[in-house]
Each structure stands twice: as C-alpha cells, then as structure tokens.
Amino acid sequence: MIPVASETAAKAAPVKQTPVEQAHAALRGVTCVYHSQGRSLHALGPVDLSLARGEFFSVVGPSGCGKSTLLDILAGLNPPQTGTAHFEGKSILGVPDGVGVVFQEDASFPWLNVHDNVAFGLRRAGVDPTEIKRRVDYAIGFMGLKDFAASYPAQLSGGMRQRVCIARTLVLQPRLILLDEPFGALDQQTRLIMGDELLRLWRETSATILLITHALDEAAMLSDRVGVMSTRPGTFIDIIETGWDRNRDSRVVSKPHFGDITARLWEKLRVEALKMMSTREL
Length: 282
Ligand code: ADP
Ligand code: MG
Hints:
The protein is of the alpha/beta class. The protein folds into 2 domains: 1-98 and 175-282, P-loop containing nucleotide triphosphate hydrolases (Rossmann fold, 3-Layer(aba) Sandwich), CATH 3.40.50.300; 107-173, no CATH class. It is built from 7 helices and 10 strands. It has helices at 67-74, 114-124, 129-142, 158-170, 188-205, 216-222, 256-278; strands at 25-36, 39-51, 56-60, 82-87, 90-91, 99-103, 176-180, 208-212, 225-229, 236-241. Helix 3 (129-142) crosses helix 4 and helix 6 (216-222) packs across helix 7. The two termini are 32 Å apart. The site of magnesium ion has 3 residues, from helix 1.
C-alpha cells in the first residue's frame, strides 16, 4: 500500500503543504499566463508546492501542462504573475544564489573542452583560480570524467555530455538542484545509470532536488515524493510518497513496491493524458 499525501484526484482538492517558513523552497498560489501574438495562455496554477530541505522531489504531468514553467519560476528565470516563490525564506527575484539548473538540451559549449566547460561558471564569477581547480577536479572526478578532461563535447556520448552539464552545476555547490527532463534524450539503460549517478550526487551534496521527467519509472525510482500535475493550467492533483531508503539505487525497479508506485502514477496521469487528447493538444 502506497502512502499518499492526497487521496483525491479532484483538481480543486489542495495537497497538504508544509508551511513556507519550514520549506527549503516554496510556491504559494503561483500562476503564469503567457501573452503572445495578442493571445493569452494560462500555463500554470494556481499552484502550491513545498520542498523540504534535502528531499528528492519529482514532477510528472502531461506534455504542455506547465512543468518547465514551474521550474523556471523556482530558478528565478520567469517571475510568477500572482502568488509567491521563496527559496531559503527569501522571495525569488532573479536567479537565486545556491540554485543550479540542468536542462535536457545538451547545454555544454562545443568549443570548450570538458575541463573548461566545467570551470566556465566559476571563471565568470571571478572565483580564485586555486579554488576553481579544487572544485573542477572534484566535480570531474565525481562524475567519472577524469579521463575526458581534455576531450571536446563532440567526442563524447550523450550520457557523457549530460555528465558534463551536471558537473558544471555541481561546481557551483548548489543547495537546490533543478533538472528539466535531463535524461530525456538518452536510451533507457543510460538513463538508469544516470539515475544512479544523480542519487549518488544527491546523497553526497545533501542538496534538495526537483526533477521534471516524463518517465514514470524514473520518478518512481529516484524520488522521495512524486507530484502529479493536471493538464494545463497545471496544478498538483496528487503527491505520492515512495518510502524508499536514502541508500536506494536503480535496483528498486525489481521490487513489487516499485510496480505499485508506477501503477498509481499511471492511474492519475492516464486520466489527464486522455483529457489532453480530447482537447487535441497532444
Ligand atoms: P511542459 O514543460 O509541461 O511541457 P511548459 O511549461 O513548457 O510545459 O509550457 C506550458 C504551456 O505554455 C504550453 O502550452 C506552452 O506551449 C506554453 N508556453 C511555454 N512557454 C511559452 C512562452 N514563452 N510563450 C508562450 N507560451 C508558452
Ligand atoms: Mg518542459
């Protein structure tokens, strides 16, 4: 039996949230409406979310429901139209110090080798060269890139290039790591391995992680909690606690409980995906 924070799938039923003051990052009543070519599009919310310090939280939801919009708001890349967004008790205004973002797109710089890609952000921030060397060597070693420090992205596999992007975030020593479908372009086996890498990084850094993924198995395997979003404008219709041990890895996929979690996620998402199809938005 899976413990769930909310038993109701009704859109209006609020999922219970930790108070803003106790949360590491929090959204309250956040909405986002895009205006383009004279039309308004209500993309997100109102949405509430509380991330506990050090938790691994994943978000799943139908395509176009506002997942990336939610992540951009936490990253300070996109201000909410209404509601509030907080990180470590402060309002999010611009990219907050201590927040790192990893995107699906291969965001490595093709003209820089792995070492210089990883050092890029620190150099730009004017960090002391000795400190840069220390942090870059650590991140490159941690992500298994030591033998590739002098290689260029074009010489690496997709999985290795995404490791470079994670290392680039890791050197910034983020306390909150936001990942937007980071493994979406990778094959299934590489994704499972990258999931293990991400769990190792999460344990090592004690960072809070928010992962957006379209892969239900990824969400079920990696997370402490999985938030399921409705069709656009996205809100949380359910939050499922997985109950995994902190020392978990990809082998949890063989446990019966893993099947229970993915079944529950699909039960919720299927309804939303069908709604989406009926509006021809897939
Ligand atoms: P998801 O990540 O869940 O697929 P997004 O947050 O990217 O969804 O987008 C939510 C909705 O907002 C989609 O319908 C998308 O087309 C629209 N959208 C996203 N960004 C913009 C933008 N800059 N201008 C106009 N519409 C946008
Ligand atoms: Mg997206």
